[in-house]
Amino acid sequence: MHSLGNDLRLYGKLDRPGAWNNLPLWGSGAYPAAVRPGAFAAGVFAAALRYRPDLIVTTHPNFAHVARFASRPGGIPYFVVAHGIDVTSGLSHSRLAGIAAAKKILAVSSWTRKRVIDLWHIDPSRVSILPNTFDEDRFSVGQRPTTLRSRYHLQPTDRVILTVGRLDASEGYKGYDRLIRALPAIRAATGAVKLIIVGKGSDKERAVLLAREHGVSEHVLFAGFVPDEELPDHYRLADVFAMPSTGEGFGIVFLEAMGCGTPVLGGNADGSVDALGLGELGVLVDPVDVQAIVAGVV
Predict the structure, then answer these.
(1) Are residues 140 and 259 in contact, defined by beta-carbon separation less than 8 angstroms?
(2) Which site in 22, 57, 193, 209 is 20 to 30 Å from 82, CA atoms measured?
(3) Average pLDDT rounded to a whole number, residues 113-132
(4) CA 39 to CA 44: how far, in whole Å?
(5) H or E element at residue 80
């Protein structure tokens, strides 16, 4: 929007006031958690009164009611962006009312669009697809980083499968546990392979026990949290990036990996299909079939 000459102002519930990419950013992050939702809504409403924008865009359905509230004084149209698992019928009445009154719903993938139509009962003509993207200046082809090979004690013959995502039970749909189950057969077919899991969370203990149960504890490396500036080198380190997910709205990580020149594997049952260009840009497999994951990675 900004690059096309539009005046763009950003508002964040958890952010502190400042700037993002040289754009003004107002945030209610400095307020105590108990009053932050009200402060955020009031701040957005005040901005709508002051600046009278031509369009309001809320980048999450949870803020649809705030956008509706802010749009009222001047009859300002607003869009709601839908990502994937955030599309649920379990939203509050006020949020669903905000979604119903939006001029347009922007879904990040065809899978997410279908969920919007089916679960929110939105007229298909009001739901458009606006795919996610990535920073191609940061995520680009480069040399394999020797520093990371040393950090993870990789041998010269070791090949690497990488997956990125929070180790949280609520995000188990990303399929890191199925990669662990697939690893013994992958190693049997291809030789020395290490699985590096980037991300931290409450599900790590279960993942560690799963690796032990399948006899691959020494070959599954839990990298924990990785700073943003180190992510490109992690993609470059990998021979394959794999995320056999079942509920991913799109999967920007696929684009980041491909931008770094790394082949990718995803599931054929969610928004990964769009990210992988219907299978033209990477391998799509049944994400709950461990043998299909093995065959795809091999």
Answers:
(1) yes
(2) 22
(3) 97
(4) 9
(5) strand 78-82
pLDDT band per the 50, 70, 90 thresholds, residue 22:
confident
| C-beta of residue 47 within 8 angstroms of C-beta of residue 26 | yes
In sequence order, the 6+-apart residues with CB closer than 8 A to the CB of 33 are none
Helix (H, G, I), strand (E, B) or coil at 102: coil
Instruction: Return the structure tokens found at 30.
Output: 């400095």
Whether the pLDDT of residue 5 is over 90: the answer is: no
Name the 3-class secondary structure at 198. strand
> Which residues face 242 on adjacent strands?
265
pLDDT tens for each residue of 169-199: 877 799 999 999 999 999 999 999 999 999 9
Q: Which helix (H) or strand (E) holds 120?
A: helix 110-120
CA-atom Rg of the chain in angstroms: 21
Only one residue has tokens 């020494």, namely: 218
